[in-house]
Structure formats: structure tokens, C-alpha cells
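Predicting holo structure, zinc ion bound.
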Amino acid sequence: MHEMSIAEGVVQLLEEQSLAQNYTRVKHVWLEIGPLAAVESEALRFCFDAVTRNTLAEGALLDIIDLPGEAWCLGCATTVPITQRYDSCVHCGSYQLQVTRGDELRIKELEVE
Ligand SMILES: [Zn+2]
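Done. C-alpha cells:
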């Protein structure tokens, strides 16, 4: 499952960071996810709970922040909102969109001790 490897990647990052930043426990994680990262929030939550067991992030809260997707429409020569990679332009219906944001997947903030 895609979400499982993402959750594992997050935990790995938390463990690496704990050495550099000198914390032993992660209590809360805020993740920013764009619509094009194709992540199911509920599946990710489930996987996060599973992979954090017996790690420094066991029992940590996970907050998922949905970021907007955006693309540049060649037809309108403007930035338009998108919710998936192959959306058409909401203004002119064109499929000539260049995605400019929406595939983010990053840790925004951590609460540690
Ligand atoms: Zn357009």
C-alpha cells in the first residue's frame, strides 16, 4: 500500500531528526499533503498508527492538512485550481494545464519532547 510506505518514510524521518534535534518522543505531527500526492487521509492515519508502534512516535497525533492544487492554464494564461492531475480548466475547459502545485507531502510541524 502506497500509504504504508509514506507512513514508514515519515517515521524514518522522525527518527533521523530526533538525533539531530535531540528529542526522544514525538507527540504530534502535522503533515501537509497536496491533492496530487494521491494519499488517502484515512488510510494514512491507519498506517501511521500501525508503523509508529514501538517507535518514538507511538501514540502521536497525526493532523493532515490538505493543500490546494494549482495549475497554469495555457488557454486562459492564468492560474486555476485543480483537484487532480488530469483536471480540465475550470474557466475554459482546456486540458492544457501545467501543474504548478499540489504534489506536496511534507512535515509542517512537530510537537516533541
Ligand atoms: Zn483555461
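The chain has a mean pLDDT of 95.
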